[in-house]
Amino acid sequence: MFQNNKELHFGLGILMVSTVILSVVGFCFSSVCGSLVMVACMVTMGVYCATEYYRYRQLQKLSHDLDTLLAAGTPLPIRGYAEGELSILANQIQKITIQLSESAEASQSDRLYLADSLADISHQLRTPLTAMNLTATMLRDPNLPSEKRIALARDLQSLLSRTDWLVESLLKLSKLDAGTVTLAKEPVAVSELIHRAASAIAIPMDLRNQQLVVNCTQEQFVGDLIWTSEALGNILKNCMEHTPDGGSITVTALETALYTQLEVTDTGSGFQPEDLPHLFERFYRGSNASQTSYGIGLALARTVIVSQNGTVQAMNTPSGAKFVIKFYKQVI
User: Fold this and answer.
1) Residues 230, 170: Cα–Cα separation, whole Å
2) Which end of the chain has less Cβ packing within 10 Å, N or C?
3) Nearest to 324 by CA among 265, 284, 276, 283
4) Which alpha helices (H) appear in the chain, and where do they start and end?
């Protein structure tokens, strides 16, 4: 263990030279003095060698522990080292191995999540793409009646619109997840927010003879108008799809010292109790979901709202469903 240790050889060389010099000086005074000096130097050399031997045995043990840790592939406790520089080194190595292990686990979790997400996205896209392929095949029939051709073309346009919305929503979610979106922090008037969010569903609501009731005055909050209108629009769209013809959707705003609240209620059938805990999960389709639902709108809404220090909850009322959105004025 000491054969190739230049540091030890240098130290022993210094001690030996010092021993010779001090012994000669001691013998110049008397033989007794020289003998005592020589014995003291020899004892010092012995203590030095013993200390170095113990230190390098500890380094050997630490090296063995690291080899065991690398072979196991998981963090193992590095213990049995006395206080001192070696103990500090062992503790730092232990911390690094734990951090590396946690990073590896997080990376594995991210890979699994990505694989599951890609599988879900593939499944969601396969259905409209299959329908579009079938519709396009039918449209190629030269003997197809004009009425049927017009109907198929209308269905194809609808499928294309739904697929475009799905892709756009998935891209928005991906940007939010990756942290590449910088949400604005500007005063947002709730009245303007509701107007922008409702404009996208104004025509479908009119065709269904549904009414939108807005109860707000001067309420506002700090956030991103465009992204929040996207989130609120998805919630309004969900209410519209589950409200029967002739029904109504009501949006009520409230501002307190702690938060600004938006309450969205409809006169629909509400949610099934088993669906409530999962409504904001990606690709989750509730029991009452329509055939055109992808289970992505509410997930996107929740991501946008939470990213702005907000919360969103869904619940049932005696008259239908209710969403409660809160934008807090400060972190609590």
Assistant:
1) 13
2) C
3) 265
4) 6-29, 31-72, 85-139, 146-178, 190-199, 202-207, 225-241, 297-306
Q: What is the pLDDT of residues 21-57, one digit of tens each?
A: 776 777 777 777 777 777 777 777 777 777 777 777 7
For CA atoms 298, 302, 308, 310, give the dihedral sign. Answer: positive
Tokens of 3: 């054969």
Query: Amino acid letter at 297?
Result: G
Q: Computed from CA positions of residues 194, 197, 200, 204, in that sequence, does the dihedral angle turn out positive or negative?
A: negative
**Which tokens belong to 248?**
């109504």
C-alpha to C-alpha distance for 195 and 209, rounded to whole angstroms: 18
Q: Facing residues of 188 across strands?
A: 221
Bridge partner list, 322: 265, 315
Q: Which of 243, 112, 236, 234 is nearest to 166 (CA)?
A: 234
The Cβ of residue 311 has, within 10 Å, a number of other Cβ atoms equal to 14
Q: How confident is the model at residue 1 (pLDDT cuts 50, 70, 90)?
A: very low
Confidence at residue 7, expressed as pLDDT on a 0 to 100 scale: 63
> What's the pTM value of the predicted model, to 2 decimals?
0.61
DSSP string, 149-178: HHHHHHHHHHHHHHHHHHHHHHHHHHHHHH
What average pLDDT does range 270-288 have in this prediction? 82
DSSP state of 265: E
Under DSSP, is residue 61 helix (H, G, I), strand (E, B) or coil? helix
